[in-house]
Structure formats: structure tokens, C-alpha cells
Amino acid sequence: MSITLGNKVVLVGTGAVGSSYAYGLLNQGLCDELVIVDLNTEKAKGDVMDLNHGIAFAPATMNIRFGHYEDCKDAALVVICAGAAQKPGETRLDLVYKNVKIFKSIVEEIMESGFNGIFLVATNPVDILSYATLKFSGLPKDRVIGSGTVLDSARFRYLLGREFDTAAASVHGYIMGEHGDSQFPVWSSANIAGIPVAGRLSEERKTEISAQVRDAAYEIIQAKGATYYGIAIGLIRITKAILRNENVVLPVGALLEGEYGHKDVFIGAPSVITRNGVKHVVELVLTDEEKDKLAQSVHTLKEIQDAAI
User: What is the three-class DSSP state of 146?
Assistant: First the structure.
């Protein structure tokens, strides 16, 4: 089913991630209308005022306003950043029970508005909450997208770029699986200008880089309380791909329905993104070791998912 809505975006949740995302939208001029919804109305209204004061310097004009769930009715995209935040020493999966309850309330209210666009989920644990959003909304699977491993893959590309003194944009590589501790790098296809990088690194160095990517959030949370700039830019990239119908491949959270031999789980995997959401999941040729790691990640998520939803 083709979506013919405009490019109105509703942001639910104006914490550090949500407000950073809104700032990125303004800076890139990606939508005509941005509606901000949050239980903390004073904070949300303050963000609206602050962002509006920057419109004179933005690349395009934008109608930014405070709103409510009923404003989702004609939205092209609803981005959910609301929920309990990850605390120092807490894993993303530790958040699941409290955030599933929050999401049930949010998604049901949004659907009552008549919303028929695309959900983009950023709240952790994002894979579980993307699955919850699909179940609570009743929307087709292509119209529920998680941030998946878009940030993890960006971290991977940054580290490889630094390793080989090459711009991160010229590094091609993916992190797959859970946006969390069971994620893994797809070393077999990582390359710079088509040249594989795995053979140019020792096993020890590959292990170090994998750990740096996996543990980056814990380090940032310990240092400043939360991660938000990196994920906000990742969400902006996904938003741009949707609203501009780019047909670009991004490692988002997508529902597997037999791809890679797994089904009924949202997992970070390269997927083609269009104006209608996830066009299809791209199936990389994985090594046996990578297949095992993906299976472990799926098992980790399904155990929690089955208990929580």
C-alpha cells in the first residue's frame, strides 16, 4: 500500500534524544511541519520556542509546534523517543518491562487518532519495543522501523576509518543483531572501496574494535549520563531516507519473516528504505560464525520478547 501523506513529523518524547533529533530536523530542513508531544508539557513547549528562534537561520522554513496524540492523524512519520532512560550499569534489555508498558499506552493513543503513516522507534531496548509497536499498532510490518544497528554501524565505520586513515563515509560495513550486547560486526563484508578490511587486521585487533563498538554506549553513559547526538543523527538519516524515498540501504531494525532463517523478531539488518518504509531486508552472505552469532542474538531477544509482550 502506497503512502500519500505529506512530510509532517510528530516527535513523541523530548528528552536528550528527542530534542537532539528535533534540532537535527531543523538544521537539515527535512520536513514542513514538526509537532512535539511530551507528558512534560513545559519542557516540550520550551523546546518548541527555542527551535522556532532558529528558523531564520535554517535551510528551509518549518512549522514547529507543541501538540497532542490526535495530531498524529495526518502525520507521515511518528518518531518515538519517549520512555525510561538507560542508567549507568543498566543494560538496554533491563529497560524492557517498564518501557513496554509505556509504549502500549502511547501507541494505542496514536492509533486512536487514525494514524496511518510510519513509526520510527528509538527508545531502548529498541528491538523489543519495535516489535511491541508492531503488535500494539496493527500496522503492516514495513511501516514499523526501529533504529536497529544504524548507530552501531556508524561507530564501526568511524573506528575502521580511523584505523585506516579513511573517511568514515567511505567505509562500508555493518553491525547486525541486537542493538545491545549480542550484536556483532559482519567482518566478512566490511570493506573500503571494495577492498576487504578483515584480512588487514589481526584477530586481536578485530576483537578490540568489536568491543569498542559494543561498549561505546556504556562508556558515554558513564561519562555524561546518556547518548544522544549519535543516535539523533542516525534517526535523521533514516527520516531523510523515508521522506525523500531514497531506496537506500540502512541497518535499521526490521521484522524478519524468514530472512537469515529467522522470523517474528526485529533485528538490526541492512534494509532498503523508501517512502513506504522497509521495502525489503537485504540478506548478506554470512560466514558460519556470523550465522551463529545472529542466531544467538535472535535467541537473546526472543527470550525477553516472549516474556514481556
Answer: strand
Active site residue 179: yes
Q: Which amino acid is at 222?
A: Q
Alpha carbon dihedral 223, 224, 229, 234, in 10-degree steps, equals 60
Same domain, 173 and 292: yes
Read off the pLDDT of residues 280-309 as tens digits, 9 standing for 90 and up: 999 999 999 999 999 999 999 999 999 888
* Cell output for 111: 492509533
What confidence tens digit (pLDDT) does each residue in 96-138 have? 888 999 999 999 999 999 999 999 999 999 999 999 999 999 9
Same-domain pairing of 162 and 252? yes
- Co-location of 161 and 290 in the same domain: yes
Query: What was the pLDDT predicted at 1?
Result: 47
Task: Say how many domains are in the chain.
Answer: 2
Domain that holds residue 172: 150-308
Catalytic one of 53, 68, 172, 179: 179
- Checking if the pLDDT of 3 tops 60, the result is no
Whole-angstrom Cα distance, residue 79 to residue 112?
A: 17
How far apart (Å, rounded) are the C-alpha atoms in residues 202 and 36?
Answer: 47
Last residue of a domain, one of 103, 120, 146: 146
Q: Tell me, yes or no, whether 174 lies in a domain.
A: yes
pLDDT, tens only, 145-186: 999 999 999 999 999 999 999 999 999 999 999 999 999 999
Residues 160 and 295 placed together within one structural domain of the fold: yes
Last residue of a domain, one of 126, 146, 166: 146
pTM (two decimals): 0.95
Given this model, what pLDDT does residue 204 score?
98
Question: 115 Cβ partners below 8 Å, 6+ apart?
Answer: 72, 73, 75, 78
